[in-house]
Design a protein that fits this description.
The structure is a single chain. The protein is globular. Helices cover about 25% and strands about 25% of the residues. The strands form five sheets. Strands 5, 6, 7, 8, 9, 10, 13 and 16 form an eight-stranded antiparallel β-sheet that branches. It contains 15 helices and 22 strands. α4 (about 75-90) packs across α10. β19, α11 (about 345-355) and β20 form a beta-alpha-beta unit. The protein is α+β, with helices and mostly antiparallel strands.
Protein backbone atom coordinates (compact mmCIF):
# COMPACT_ATOMS: atom_id res chain seq x y z
CA UNK A 1 0.00 0.00 0.00
CA UNK A 2 1.21 3.50 -0.79
CA UNK A 3 1.89 5.69 2.23
CA UNK A 4 -0.81 8.34 2.51
CA UNK A 5 1.13 10.70 4.78
CA UNK A 6 2.82 14.02 4.31
CA UNK A 7 6.19 12.60 5.37
CA UNK A 8 6.72 10.63 2.17
CA UNK A 9 6.26 13.84 0.22
CA UNK A 10 8.70 15.67 2.52
CA UNK A 11 11.25 12.92 1.88
CA UNK A 12 10.79 13.45 -1.86
CA UNK A 13 11.38 17.19 -1.46
CA UNK A 14 14.49 16.53 0.62
CA UNK A 15 15.87 14.20 -2.06
CA UNK A 16 15.85 17.02 -4.63
CA UNK A 17 17.16 19.72 -2.31
CA UNK A 18 13.80 21.42 -1.73
CA UNK A 19 13.64 20.89 2.03
CA UNK A 20 15.97 22.70 4.42
CA UNK A 21 16.40 22.21 8.14
CA UNK A 22 16.67 25.07 10.61
CA UNK A 23 18.44 23.68 13.67
CA UNK A 24 18.78 26.88 15.71
CA UNK A 25 16.05 27.55 18.30
CA UNK A 26 12.93 29.25 16.91
CA UNK A 27 10.44 31.10 19.12
CA UNK A 28 6.82 30.26 18.30
CA UNK A 29 5.94 33.91 18.90
CA UNK A 30 6.75 35.81 15.66
CA UNK A 31 10.08 34.07 14.92
CA UNK A 32 8.47 31.01 13.34
CA UNK A 33 6.39 33.29 11.12
CA UNK A 34 9.51 35.24 10.19
CA UNK A 35 11.36 32.08 9.12
CA UNK A 36 8.50 31.00 6.88
CA UNK A 37 7.99 34.51 5.49
CA UNK A 38 11.67 34.93 4.60
CA UNK A 39 11.56 31.60 2.72
CA UNK A 40 7.99 32.03 1.44
CA UNK A 41 8.64 31.21 -2.22
CA UNK A 42 11.61 28.98 -1.59
CA UNK A 43 12.19 25.54 -0.12
CA UNK A 44 10.03 23.73 2.39
CA UNK A 45 11.31 24.22 5.93
CA UNK A 46 11.72 21.85 8.85
CA UNK A 47 12.39 23.58 12.18
CA UNK A 48 13.77 21.00 14.58
CA UNK A 49 13.79 23.15 17.73
CA UNK A 50 10.68 25.27 18.16
CA UNK A 51 10.04 26.71 21.60
CA UNK A 52 7.05 24.98 23.16
CA UNK A 53 6.94 22.13 20.63
CA UNK A 54 8.17 18.60 21.49
CA UNK A 55 8.06 17.77 17.79
CA UNK A 56 9.68 19.20 14.64
CA UNK A 57 7.60 21.79 12.78
CA UNK A 58 7.35 21.97 8.97
CA UNK A 59 6.04 24.71 6.71
CA UNK A 60 6.13 26.15 3.16
CA UNK A 61 5.35 22.63 2.01
CA UNK A 62 2.78 23.42 -0.72
CA UNK A 63 3.81 26.94 -1.72
CA UNK A 64 3.71 26.68 -5.53
CA UNK A 65 1.81 25.04 -8.37
CA UNK A 66 4.86 22.94 -9.08
CA UNK A 67 4.87 21.58 -5.53
CA UNK A 68 1.16 20.84 -5.64
CA UNK A 69 1.53 19.04 -8.96
CA UNK A 70 4.42 16.96 -7.67
CA UNK A 71 2.37 16.01 -4.60
CA UNK A 72 -0.24 14.29 -6.76
CA UNK A 73 2.18 12.94 -9.35
CA UNK A 74 1.13 15.30 -12.13
CA UNK A 75 2.72 17.78 -14.50
CA UNK A 76 1.86 21.40 -13.84
CA UNK A 77 -0.18 21.55 -17.05
CA UNK A 78 -2.28 18.61 -15.83
CA UNK A 79 -2.81 19.86 -12.29
CA UNK A 80 -6.08 21.70 -12.89
CA UNK A 81 -7.66 18.93 -15.02
CA UNK A 82 -6.75 16.41 -12.30
CA UNK A 83 -8.36 18.59 -9.63
CA UNK A 84 -11.44 19.22 -11.77
CA UNK A 85 -11.77 15.46 -12.30
CA UNK A 86 -11.57 14.95 -8.53
CA UNK A 87 -14.43 17.41 -8.02
CA UNK A 88 -16.56 15.25 -10.34
CA UNK A 89 -15.48 11.86 -8.96
CA UNK A 90 -15.80 10.11 -5.62
CA UNK A 91 -14.79 6.76 -4.14
CA UNK A 92 -15.77 5.47 -0.69
CA UNK A 93 -13.07 5.64 1.96
CA UNK A 94 -11.45 2.42 3.19
CA UNK A 95 -12.00 1.92 6.92
CA UNK A 96 -9.05 0.09 8.52
CA UNK A 97 -8.68 -1.26 12.03
CA UNK A 98 -5.66 0.82 12.99
CA UNK A 99 -3.21 3.31 11.55
CA UNK A 100 0.03 5.12 12.39
CA UNK A 101 -1.88 8.22 13.51
CA UNK A 102 -3.21 6.26 16.53
CA UNK A 103 0.12 4.80 17.62
CA UNK A 104 -0.05 7.04 20.72
CA UNK A 105 -3.25 8.11 22.47
CA UNK A 106 -3.13 11.02 24.90
CA UNK A 107 -5.66 12.77 27.16
CA UNK A 108 -7.35 16.00 26.14
CA UNK A 109 -5.28 18.04 28.59
CA UNK A 110 -2.11 17.31 26.58
CA UNK A 111 -3.31 19.10 23.47
CA UNK A 112 -1.52 22.45 23.69
CA UNK A 113 1.76 20.84 24.75
CA UNK A 114 1.62 18.39 21.83
CA UNK A 115 0.57 20.88 19.14
CA UNK A 116 2.30 24.24 18.98
CA UNK A 117 0.12 27.29 18.26
CA UNK A 118 2.38 30.03 16.90
CA UNK A 119 1.55 33.72 17.13
CA UNK A 120 2.19 34.92 13.60
CA UNK A 121 1.54 38.65 13.35
CA UNK A 122 1.75 41.71 15.57
CA UNK A 123 -1.94 42.36 16.15
CA UNK A 124 -3.24 38.78 16.18
CA UNK A 125 -5.29 38.09 19.30
CA UNK A 126 -3.33 34.90 20.02
CA UNK A 127 -1.63 31.84 18.63
CA UNK A 128 -3.33 29.49 16.17
CA UNK A 129 -3.39 26.07 14.58
CA UNK A 130 -3.44 27.02 10.89
CA UNK A 131 -2.91 23.72 9.05
CA UNK A 132 -5.66 21.82 10.81
CA UNK A 133 -7.94 19.98 8.40
CA UNK A 134 -11.21 19.52 10.28
CA UNK A 135 -13.11 16.32 9.48
CA UNK A 136 -16.63 16.19 10.86
CA UNK A 137 -19.53 13.77 11.23
CA UNK A 138 -23.00 15.20 11.79
CA UNK A 139 -24.89 12.65 13.93
CA UNK A 140 -28.21 14.27 12.96
CA UNK A 141 -27.93 14.16 9.16
CA UNK A 142 -25.11 11.66 8.73
CA UNK A 143 -23.19 14.19 6.63
CA UNK A 144 -19.41 14.10 6.62
CA UNK A 145 -17.14 17.00 5.73
CA UNK A 146 -13.48 17.95 5.52
CA UNK A 147 -12.40 21.59 5.49
CA UNK A 148 -10.05 24.08 7.11
CA UNK A 149 -10.58 26.50 9.97
CA UNK A 150 -8.27 28.24 12.42
CA UNK A 151 -8.19 27.16 16.06
CA UNK A 152 -6.92 29.22 19.01
CA UNK A 153 -6.33 27.81 22.52
CA UNK A 154 -8.61 29.10 25.28
CA UNK A 155 -7.88 26.92 28.30
CA UNK A 156 -6.46 23.48 29.00
CA UNK A 157 -8.99 21.51 26.96
CA UNK A 158 -10.92 24.10 24.91
CA UNK A 159 -10.27 26.38 21.99
CA UNK A 160 -11.88 28.89 19.69
CA UNK A 161 -12.71 27.80 16.16
CA UNK A 162 -13.30 30.39 13.44
CA UNK A 163 -15.64 29.26 10.65
CA UNK A 164 -17.35 31.47 8.08
CA UNK A 165 -21.15 31.56 8.55
CA UNK A 166 -21.87 30.12 5.09
CA UNK A 167 -19.47 27.17 5.33
CA UNK A 168 -20.77 23.62 5.47
CA UNK A 169 -18.98 23.03 8.78
CA UNK A 170 -21.02 25.87 10.27
CA UNK A 171 -24.26 24.35 8.98
CA UNK A 172 -23.33 20.98 10.46
CA UNK A 173 -22.34 22.49 13.82
CA UNK A 174 -25.64 24.36 14.01
CA UNK A 175 -27.54 21.21 13.04
CA UNK A 176 -25.92 19.32 15.92
CA UNK A 177 -26.54 22.22 18.34
CA UNK A 178 -30.23 22.28 17.42
CA UNK A 179 -30.39 18.67 18.60
CA UNK A 180 -28.65 19.59 21.84
CA UNK A 181 -25.33 18.06 20.82
CA UNK A 182 -21.82 19.13 19.99
CA UNK A 183 -20.58 18.31 16.48
CA UNK A 184 -18.01 15.47 16.57
CA UNK A 185 -14.87 16.55 14.71
CA UNK A 186 -11.18 15.76 14.43
CA UNK A 187 -8.45 18.27 13.61
CA UNK A 188 -5.99 16.50 11.33
CA UNK A 189 -2.39 17.64 10.91
CA UNK A 190 -0.02 16.16 8.34
CA UNK A 191 -2.34 14.27 6.00
CA UNK A 192 -1.13 13.55 2.48
CA UNK A 193 -1.15 16.72 0.33
CA UNK A 194 -3.74 15.17 -2.00
CA UNK A 195 -6.12 14.84 0.94
CA UNK A 196 -5.40 18.40 2.03
CA UNK A 197 -6.15 19.67 -1.48
CA UNK A 198 -9.44 17.79 -1.63
CA UNK A 199 -10.48 19.39 1.67
CA UNK A 200 -10.20 22.80 -0.02
CA UNK A 201 -12.56 21.92 -2.89
CA UNK A 202 -15.97 23.58 -3.15
CA UNK A 203 -18.48 20.73 -3.07
CA UNK A 204 -22.11 20.33 -2.10
CA UNK A 205 -23.35 20.04 1.46
CA UNK A 206 -23.10 16.36 2.39
CA UNK A 207 -20.32 15.59 -0.10
CA UNK A 208 -17.41 14.04 1.77
CA UNK A 209 -14.17 15.60 0.56
CA UNK A 210 -12.22 12.51 1.65
CA UNK A 211 -14.11 10.52 -0.98
CA UNK A 212 -13.04 12.99 -3.67
CA UNK A 213 -9.39 12.77 -2.56
CA UNK A 214 -9.20 9.25 -4.01
CA UNK A 215 -9.01 10.64 -7.55
CA UNK A 216 -5.87 12.58 -6.56
CA UNK A 217 -4.28 9.77 -4.54
CA UNK A 218 -5.02 7.08 -7.09
CA UNK A 219 -6.65 4.92 -4.40
CA UNK A 220 -9.28 5.28 -1.66
CA UNK A 221 -8.31 7.20 1.46
CA UNK A 222 -7.57 4.87 4.35
CA UNK A 223 -9.27 6.00 7.53
CA UNK A 224 -9.61 4.90 11.15
CA UNK A 225 -12.46 5.67 13.52
CA UNK A 226 -11.75 8.20 16.20
CA UNK A 227 -11.12 6.95 19.71
CA UNK A 228 -13.88 9.16 21.17
CA UNK A 229 -16.36 9.43 18.27
CA UNK A 230 -17.45 8.04 14.91
CA UNK A 231 -15.40 10.59 13.00
CA UNK A 232 -13.21 8.97 10.32
CA UNK A 233 -9.65 10.31 10.18
CA UNK A 234 -6.87 9.67 7.63
CA UNK A 235 -4.95 6.72 9.05
CA UNK A 236 -1.50 7.90 7.94
CA UNK A 237 -1.67 11.49 9.19
CA UNK A 238 0.74 12.86 11.79
CA UNK A 239 -1.48 14.15 14.62
CA UNK A 240 -5.23 14.21 15.31
CA UNK A 241 -7.07 16.29 17.89
CA UNK A 242 -10.52 14.84 18.55
CA UNK A 243 -13.31 16.95 19.96
CA UNK A 244 -16.67 18.64 19.68
CA UNK A 245 -17.64 21.96 18.13
CA UNK A 246 -20.32 23.74 20.15
CA UNK A 247 -22.17 26.25 17.97
CA UNK A 248 -24.26 27.27 20.98
CA UNK A 249 -21.22 28.39 22.98
CA UNK A 250 -20.03 31.62 21.31
CA UNK A 251 -16.55 33.02 21.91
CA UNK A 252 -15.29 36.43 20.81
CA UNK A 253 -12.09 36.17 18.80
CA UNK A 254 -10.59 39.65 18.42
CA UNK A 255 -8.25 40.64 15.61
CA UNK A 256 -7.00 37.95 13.26
CA UNK A 257 -5.08 38.03 9.98
CA UNK A 258 -6.89 37.01 6.79
CA UNK A 259 -5.87 35.61 3.41
CA UNK A 260 -5.88 39.10 1.86
CA UNK A 261 -3.04 40.10 4.18
CA UNK A 262 -4.99 42.42 6.47
CA UNK A 263 -6.69 42.03 9.85
CA UNK A 264 -10.34 41.30 10.49
CA UNK A 265 -12.53 41.26 13.59
CA UNK A 266 -15.33 38.83 12.87
CA UNK A 267 -16.80 38.89 16.35
CA UNK A 268 -17.92 35.57 17.80
CA UNK A 269 -16.94 32.07 16.78
CA UNK A 270 -17.63 28.65 18.26
CA UNK A 271 -16.14 26.71 21.16
CA UNK A 272 -13.98 23.66 20.41
CA UNK A 273 -13.91 21.07 23.21
CA UNK A 274 -10.98 18.64 23.02
CA UNK A 275 -11.71 15.00 23.92
CA UNK A 276 -8.44 13.24 22.99
CA UNK A 277 -5.18 13.52 21.07
CA UNK A 278 -3.67 10.75 18.95
CA UNK A 279 -0.44 10.81 17.01
CA UNK A 280 2.32 8.88 15.35
CA UNK A 281 5.25 7.75 17.45
CA UNK A 282 7.45 10.45 15.89
CA UNK A 283 5.14 13.13 14.45
CA UNK A 284 5.89 16.40 12.70
CA UNK A 285 3.59 19.37 13.07
CA UNK A 286 2.52 21.09 9.85
CA UNK A 287 2.13 24.86 10.09
CA UNK A 288 0.82 27.08 7.29
CA UNK A 289 1.94 30.70 7.41
CA UNK A 290 -1.42 32.49 7.18
CA UNK A 291 -2.21 35.87 5.67
CA UNK A 292 -0.87 36.65 2.20
CA UNK A 293 1.64 33.79 2.03
CA UNK A 294 2.24 31.45 -0.88
CA UNK A 295 1.24 28.19 0.84
CA UNK A 296 -1.93 29.73 2.28
CA UNK A 297 -2.76 31.12 -1.16
CA UNK A 298 -2.02 28.15 -3.42
CA UNK A 299 -3.59 25.44 -1.27
CA UNK A 300 -6.90 27.28 -1.76
CA UNK A 301 -6.35 28.75 -5.22
CA UNK A 302 -6.00 25.49 -7.14
CA UNK A 303 -9.10 23.75 -5.72
CA UNK A 304 -11.13 26.95 -6.22
CA UNK A 305 -9.88 27.18 -9.81
CA UNK A 306 -10.81 23.53 -10.38
CA UNK A 307 -14.29 24.12 -8.99
CA UNK A 308 -14.80 27.12 -11.25
CA UNK A 309 -13.57 25.18 -14.27
CA UNK A 310 -16.01 22.40 -13.43
CA UNK A 311 -18.87 24.91 -13.02
CA UNK A 312 -18.08 26.52 -16.38
CA UNK A 313 -17.88 23.30 -18.37
CA UNK A 314 -21.22 23.95 -20.14
CA UNK A 315 -20.94 27.72 -20.43
CA UNK A 316 -20.93 27.77 -24.25
CA UNK A 317 -17.23 28.25 -25.00
CA UNK A 318 -14.07 26.22 -24.51
CA UNK A 319 -12.53 26.85 -21.10
CA UNK A 320 -8.77 26.59 -21.59
CA UNK A 321 -7.44 27.40 -18.14
CA UNK A 322 -8.49 29.02 -14.86
CA UNK A 323 -6.25 30.80 -12.36
CA UNK A 324 -7.01 32.23 -8.95
CA UNK A 325 -4.27 34.78 -8.38
CA UNK A 326 -1.86 35.08 -5.48
CA UNK A 327 -2.41 38.84 -5.38
CA UNK A 328 -6.06 38.06 -4.64
CA UNK A 329 -5.02 35.81 -1.77
CA UNK A 330 -5.88 32.72 -3.79
CA UNK A 331 -9.59 33.44 -3.36
CA UNK A 332 -11.14 36.55 -4.89
CA UNK A 333 -9.36 37.35 -8.19
CA UNK A 334 -9.95 34.92 -11.07
CA UNK A 335 -8.55 34.76 -14.60
CA UNK A 336 -10.14 32.51 -17.22
CA UNK A 337 -8.77 31.84 -20.70
CA UNK A 338 -11.23 30.79 -23.39
CA UNK A 339 -11.32 29.69 -27.02
CA UNK A 340 -14.04 29.56 -29.67
CA UNK A 341 -16.32 31.93 -27.76
CA UNK A 342 -19.45 33.30 -29.34
CA UNK A 343 -20.18 37.04 -28.97
CA UNK A 344 -21.00 37.68 -25.32
CA UNK A 345 -19.22 34.50 -24.23
CA UNK A 346 -16.76 36.37 -21.99
CA UNK A 347 -19.63 37.90 -20.02
CA UNK A 348 -21.20 34.48 -19.53
CA UNK A 349 -17.89 33.29 -18.11
CA UNK A 350 -17.78 36.24 -15.70
CA UNK A 351 -21.24 35.60 -14.29
CA UNK A 352 -20.64 31.86 -14.17
CA UNK A 353 -17.50 32.37 -12.06
CA UNK A 354 -19.32 34.80 -9.75
CA UNK A 355 -22.04 32.22 -9.23
CA UNK A 356 -19.64 29.31 -8.72
CA UNK A 357 -17.79 30.79 -5.72
CA UNK A 358 -19.45 33.57 -3.76
CA UNK A 359 -16.22 35.19 -2.57
CA UNK A 360 -14.95 35.78 -6.13
CA UNK A 361 -14.76 39.55 -6.51
CA UNK A 362 -13.22 40.10 -9.93
CA UNK A 363 -12.91 38.03 -13.10
CA UNK A 364 -10.71 38.69 -16.11
CA UNK A 365 -11.40 36.75 -19.30
CA UNK A 366 -8.51 36.38 -21.77
CA UNK A 367 -7.75 34.52 -24.96
CA UNK A 368 -6.01 31.14 -25.11
CA UNK A 369 -2.63 32.67 -25.95
CA UNK A 370 -2.40 34.32 -22.53
CA UNK A 371 -0.88 32.48 -19.56
CA UNK A 372 -3.52 32.96 -16.87
CA UNK A 373 -1.03 32.17 -14.09
CA UNK A 374 1.35 34.96 -15.13
CA UNK A 375 -0.09 38.15 -13.66
CA UNK A 376 2.10 40.38 -15.87
CA UNK A 377 0.90 38.59 -18.99
CA UNK A 378 -2.71 39.01 -17.87
CA UNK A 379 -2.18 42.69 -17.14
CA UNK A 380 -0.68 43.07 -20.62
CA UNK A 381 -3.90 41.61 -22.05
CA UNK A 382 -5.96 44.12 -20.04
CA UNK A 383 -3.93 47.09 -21.22
CA UNK A 384 -3.61 45.89 -24.82
CA UNK A 385 -6.96 44.27 -25.64
CA UNK A 386 -9.57 46.09 -23.54
CA UNK A 387 -11.61 49.20 -24.15
CA UNK A 388 -12.67 50.28 -20.67
CA UNK A 389 -15.86 51.94 -21.94
CA UNK A 390 -16.96 48.69 -23.61
CA UNK A 391 -15.28 45.76 -21.83
CA UNK A 392 -15.61 46.61 -18.13
CA UNK A 393 -18.59 45.12 -16.31
CA UNK A 394 -19.60 46.40 -12.85
CA UNK A 395 -22.24 44.52 -10.87
CA UNK A 396 -23.27 46.43 -7.76
CA UNK A 397 -24.86 45.07 -4.59
CA UNK A 398 -23.88 41.39 -4.87
CA UNK A 399 -24.02 39.18 -1.78
CA UNK A 400 -20.60 37.85 -0.84
CA UNK A 401 -18.60 36.35 2.02
CA UNK A 402 -17.63 38.28 5.12
CA UNK A 403 -13.91 37.91 4.35
CA UNK A 404 -14.01 39.69 0.97
CA UNK A 405 -12.06 42.97 1.01
CA UNK A 406 -14.26 46.10 0.86
CA UNK A 407 -17.53 44.25 1.43
CA UNK A 408 -20.07 46.12 3.51
CA UNK A 409 -23.07 44.49 5.17
CA UNK A 410 -22.32 41.33 3.19
CA UNK A 411 -22.49 43.13 -0.17
CA UNK A 412 -19.81 44.11 -2.65
CA UNK A 413 -19.48 45.44 -6.19
CA UNK A 414 -18.06 42.76 -8.46
CA UNK A 415 -16.09 43.55 -11.61
CA UNK A 416 -15.56 41.64 -14.83
CA UNK A 417 -12.96 42.50 -17.45
CA UNK A 418 -13.21 41.23 -21.02
CA UNK A 419 -9.57 41.23 -22.16
CA UNK A 420 -10.20 39.06 -25.21
CA UNK A 421 -9.53 40.19 -28.76
CA UNK A 422 -12.39 42.03 -30.47
CA UNK A 423 -12.32 42.05 -34.27
CA UNK A 424 -11.66 45.46 -35.74
CA UNK A 425 -9.92 46.97 -32.71
CA UNK A 426 -6.48 47.12 -34.38
CA UNK A 427 -5.48 47.59 -37.98
CA UNK A 428 -2.46 45.25 -37.83
CA UNK A 429 -3.51 42.67 -35.25
CA UNK A 430 -3.51 41.98 -31.51
CA UNK A 431 -0.87 39.26 -31.32
CA UNK A 432 2.41 39.64 -29.45
CA UNK A 433 5.61 40.09 -31.43
CA UNK A 434 7.57 36.91 -30.69
CA UNK A 435 10.37 34.80 -32.18
CA UNK A 436 9.14 31.76 -34.11
CA UNK A 437 7.57 29.29 -31.70
CA UNK A 438 9.64 26.34 -32.92
CA UNK A 439 12.86 28.30 -32.34
CA UNK A 440 11.83 29.30 -28.82
CA UNK A 441 11.03 25.70 -27.93
CA UNK A 442 14.29 24.41 -29.44
CA UNK A 443 16.37 26.96 -27.52
CA UNK A 444 14.44 26.28 -24.34
CA UNK A 445 15.10 22.54 -24.63
CA UNK A 446 18.78 23.24 -25.29
CA UNK A 447 19.09 25.38 -22.16
CA UNK A 448 17.32 22.73 -20.10
CA UNK A 449 19.76 20.13 -21.45
CA UNK A 450 22.69 22.29 -20.37
CA UNK A 451 21.36 22.35 -16.81
CA UNK A 452 19.75 25.81 -16.80
CA UNK A 453 16.13 24.66 -16.49
CA UNK A 454 15.71 25.99 -12.96
CA UNK A 455 16.89 29.44 -14.09
CA UNK A 456 14.42 29.89 -16.94
CA UNK A 457 12.09 32.85 -16.35
CA UNK A 458 10.36 33.41 -19.72
CA UNK A 459 9.74 37.02 -20.69
CA UNK A 460 6.20 37.99 -21.60
CA UNK A 461 7.19 38.22 -25.26
CA UNK A 462 7.70 34.47 -25.52
CA UNK A 463 4.60 33.34 -23.67
CA UNK A 464 2.53 33.27 -26.84
CA UNK A 465 5.20 31.09 -28.42
CA UNK A 466 5.05 28.64 -25.52
CA UNK A 467 1.27 28.46 -25.24
CA UNK A 468 -0.26 25.60 -27.23
CA UNK A 469 -3.39 25.83 -29.36
CA UNK A 470 -5.65 25.29 -26.37
CA UNK A 471 -3.62 27.41 -24.02
CA UNK A 472 -1.57 24.88 -22.10
CA UNK A 473 2.03 25.79 -21.37
CA UNK A 474 4.29 23.26 -23.03
CA UNK A 475 6.69 22.73 -20.16
Amino acid sequence: MADQSMRTYLDALSAVGELIEVASPVDARFELASVLALLDRGPAVRMTTVDGSPHPVVGNVLNSRERLARAIGADVRDLLPRLAAAVADRQPVEVVADGPVQAVTLPAASVWTEVVTPTFFEKDSGGYITAGMIVAHDPVTGHRNASYARIKPLDETTGFVGIAPNHHLTAMARSAASAGQGLPVAVVLGAHPAIQLAACCYLGLGDDELEHAAALLGEPVRVVRGVTSEVLVPADAEIVIEGLIHADRPVHEGLVNEYHGMYEDYGDGFTFEVTAVTRRADPEVHVILPGLSSEHSYIAALPIAAGIRHALRNIGCDIVDVAVTHSGGGRVDVVVSIANARPGGAKRVMFGAFAAVSMVKQVTVVDADVDVWDEEHVHWARTSRMRWDRDLVLVDGVATDRNVPMQRDGMVTKVGMDATVTAGDRAVGPELAVPPAEVVREVRDRLVGEGWGDRLRPAIVVHSALVADRGRIRA
